[in-house]
Fold this protein.
Amino acid sequence: MTGRLAGKVALVTGTGGVIGRATAQVFAREGAHVVGCDLDPQASAQTVQLVRHAGGRMDDVSPVDLASAGGAATWVTEAARIGGAVDFLGAAKGGVLALTCQLAVEGGPLGIRVNAVSPAMTETPHTSPMLRDPSGPAADIIARTPLRKWGQPQDIAHAILFLSSDEAGHITGVNLPVDGGTAAVG
């Protein structure tokens, strides 16, 4: 642990999924107190166990349906109660880019930074068979990807970590594609 997020409270969505789990693990390893949520409480509880077993600190508020305003408000309120404060939110799924820009403009004067991470196809246990099929549609996609490899959950987690750290203290309102270069070639 290098402590890039020591003393911070991080809200991480989708902690029952592969990308949310990787993000929670990376944030906890860097010293954050992670408060996660997911629709699947059992899967999220597994992430809590993994984080704690590795020496990290994580709590979970699941199940939570973030598609409803009530669900999101309940999660944030409970996370603030558990952690004492909320320093940042690491959302595991793509967000609305216009909202990212608007929140960056509104939050900037208050010292609040808001950024988005947009992952391309990511290799997970669920997607790997399709991505590794040489005769499937993914073969054409990877041939057009400059880095010629699929993203891994840790790639996305590390991008979120960077944007959440003090190292990105002057970055707000951006969308960071984690896509192997596909945004560069269209």
Q: What stands out?
A: The longest strand covers residues 9-13. DSSP finds eight helices and six strands in the chain. The CA atoms of residues 145 and 182 lie 5 Å apart.
